[in-house]
Amino acid sequence: MSRVWQFVEAAGLAPLARKSYLLVRAAPKGWRHRGQVGDVTAEFATTSLLEYQRVTTLFGEEDILAALLADLDGDEVVWDIGANVGIYACFIANKLTTGVVVGFEPEPVNEARLRANLEANAPSERWQTSSVALSDDDGPGRMASADDRAKGAEAGAGHHYLAPDGWLPVECRRGETAITEGVPAPTVLKIDVQGAEMKVLEGMGDALADVSLIYAELHTEKCPQRYGTTVEEVEQFLTDAGFTLTNLGTPAGSREGVYYVRAARSS
């Protein structure tokens, strides 16, 4: 963090600085941004600085998203687990031809933006949203966030995770339960759940057998600190389930403690 920004925050001017920056960068484009990954385009709202940063930088994940899109034939059922405002979901929806993407996002402000972004990008038969938090158990839960801006209900805020002492009440579902409740069974998973990867995978139950491809963001520190698991255990779980893993490396930029894996079944 620069000394200038430290001074801005100490003076209580950070919200004004963020809004001013957004006015300069996003307002001339009508508060929307059109991005392209490979040959797929998508358009997003940019009404907060976080949204603007997400859609313009993809938080260093462009290569990961491009690889996922290249893996899709167009007829898959893709679950975007931890969809936030829909960066992955919208690009996926625009790549699909007869398939459907289901965006799971329990934070209500982000879920509303997820739905709005999907509506602006793809016909309704190409997507669905769900406000449940996928886990290894059904019932009420609570979520916290490592991002202080999340409590201010700023669209695009992230780093939400299941925690007993969390401030946000949510409904949790096993993936296999969600299917019995009417969500189409997935053939592809994209997982970004801030350390709860094992909970999501275990909650898939027998439905995991029908999944042919998984793109997962694995958290080397958050897995053990929050849930008592390790990324090695997650990788072993996937291997035992019949997947072959490819390490896709870390996101571009300065993010630490995270890397991506591609888990695929042999065709």
Helix content: 25-40%
Radius of gyration: 18 Å
What is the first-to-last residue Cα distance? 47 Å
Mean pLDDT: 89
Q: Oligomer, anyone? A: single chain
- What structural class do the secondary elements suggest? alpha/beta
How many individual β-strands? 13
Number of helices: 10
Low-confidence stretches: none
Task: Please tell me what the overall shape is.
Answer: globular
Tell me the β content. Answer: 25-35%
Give the strand order of the largest sheet, numbering strands 1, 2, ... along the chain.
Answer: 5-4-3-10-11-13-12
Major sheet: size, sense and barrel closure? 7 strands, mixed
SSE series: HHEEHHEHEHEEEEEHEHEHHEE
Describe the fold and architecture:
- There is one protein chain.
- This protein has helices at residues 3-10, 14-25, 49-57, 62-71, 87-95, 108-121, 175-180, 197-203, 222-227, 231-240; strands at residues 32-37, 40-45, 77-81, 100-104, 127-130, 133-135, 139-145, 160-162, 168-174, 188-191, 213-219, 244-249, 258-264.
- By secondary structure, the chain is α/β, with parallel strands linked by helices.
- The strands form three sheets. A seven-stranded mixed sheet has the order 5-4-3-10-11-13-12, sandwiched between helices.
- The longest helix has 14 residues, at 108-121.
- It is globular, with a radius of gyration of 18 Å.
- The mean pLDDT is 89.
